[in-house]
Amino acid sequence: MRTTMSSKNVVENNTVRGRRRRVLAAAVTIGAFAGLAGLSAPAANAQNSVGGKIGEEYVNAAFANNQIPQVYFGNILTPELDAARGGKWQNFANDKAIYWHPLVSNATAQEIGGAIRVKWGQTTGPEGGWEWGPLKYPTTREWSGRKSAVSGTVARGNHFEGGTVYWVPDSGTYVTWGLVRDAWWRVGAEDSKLGYPKSDERTSGAGWEQDFEGGMIMVGFDGRATIVILDKNGKKTETQGPVAVQELRAEK
Q1: Which of 83, 153, 210, 227 has the fewest other C-beta atoms within 10 Å?
Q2: Do 118 and 160 reside in the same domain of the chain?
């Protein structure tokens, strides 16, 4: 993907400043809203407002959840701030933020919050977490998955440039990406006998593997995937593969 700023410039100009602001943002307290018309709220010694693409998502995400923006997002904690590779972000009181990049999601800003946002920040690479990490920018706002064929659970998720994060109630928050995610999607994702993830992906001596509610996916360094279905006692009941990921098929 082409970027508007070099990695070096991001590190020198934005990374340290941006991370400090993220830490400080949680400590910022602001007053009552001036009203939806202005999309603004008074803050200590400053007037924080929401506008542009971030302002569009501020309104759209709230209305998609049947709330007005002031209630859904809470107080506006920061002005619009610099993010990686020439993007922007803004922080809000109700454990939510909005991120925008001109080359991601057709330049549409995306809301992110809660446990998924925490997991995003914890998924780090050489330059850190959040949009600097391997997941990069969110490409959707948070959405509800389908009911798990294994547990009946309905998870919440966010897609990112580099993968997907799922929050699974009573289980945890997990990253799935790469060939393992491709294999899971090809066999039916949460509609399959695998259900939702119940671990992050890990590297084994032969490739990558990830645990799911109903079994495991293993993908070798040669790109061949094996699907293992387990019963409630952890006993293997079915195996599909190893086959090339693109040859996997969902059960009819």
Answers
A1: 153
A2: no
Mean pLDDT of 210-220: 98
Question: In sequence order, what are the beta bridge partners of 252?
Answer: none
CA end-to-end distance (rounded Å), the chain: 37
Name residue, tokens 């007053």: 31
Same domain, 119 and 227: no
For the stretch 118-158, pLDDT in tens is 999 999 999 999 999 999 999 999 999 999 999 999 999 99
Beta-strand pair 154-160/163-168 = antiparallel
Q: Where are the beta strands (DSSP E) in the chain?
A: 40-43, 46-49, 81-82, 88-92, 96-100, 110-113, 143-147, 154-160, 163-168, 172-176, 202-203, 207-212, 215-220, 224-230, 236-244
Closest CA to 113 of 138, 136, 133: 138
